[in-house]
Specification:
5-stranded parallel sheet; about 50% helix; Ribose 5-phosphate Isomerase B, Chain: A; 5 strands; single chain; about 150 residues; 6 helices; alpha/beta
Length: about 150
């Protein structure tokens, strides 16, 4: 599995921790930046990761900013992206089981490193249940298609 990873300056420290967690799990990591604590704009890095997931080039992504809110907003603008802001284990598990989330978003100023590492592990290990949830995912995709066709 290959995971695209990105953050702004507020999420940089946690991104580096998560990069090591992914490597320990033998996950291929595509680091989309940022590469320092220098102030940057989260849409630049959220857009890189979301674009890779949206195009299907990479199956999953992880984004981190200060609260996770900005990155969530950016990611969910992209077609075929279902980004979930998860700052606890239950949301991480449910975002995969019921929503087939393909981007995990976390708040670097909200959660600690140990919890973030566990969230990533749970999120990656949890499969999509399908069944009645697939019907709901299809409805989300229909909304995307309608917006793209009608521009509304």
């Amino acid at each position: 599995m290959k995971v695209a990873l990105g953050s702004d300056h507020a999420g940089y420290g946690l991104k580096e921790v998560i990069k090591e967690v992914l490597k320990d799990l033998q996950v291929d990591v595509v680091d989309c930046g940022t590469d320092s604590l220098e102030s940057v704009d989260y849409p630049d890095f959220g857009g890189k990761v979301s674009g890779l997931v949206s195009s299907g080039e990479i199956e999953k992504g992880i984004l981190i900013c200060g609260t996770g809110l900005g990155m969530s907003m950016v990611a969910n603008k992209f077609p075929h992206v279902r980004a979930a802001l998860c700052n606890d284990l239950f949301c991480a598990k449910m975002s995969r089981m019921h929503n087939d989330a393909n981007i995990l978003v976390m708040g670097g100023r909200i959660i600690g490193r140990d919890l973030a590492a566990e969230i990533v592990k749970v999120w990656l290990a949890t499969p999509f249940e399908g069944s009645r949830h697939l019907q709901r995912i299809n409805k989300i995709q229909k909304i995307e298609e309608d917006i793209n066709i009608h521009g509304n």
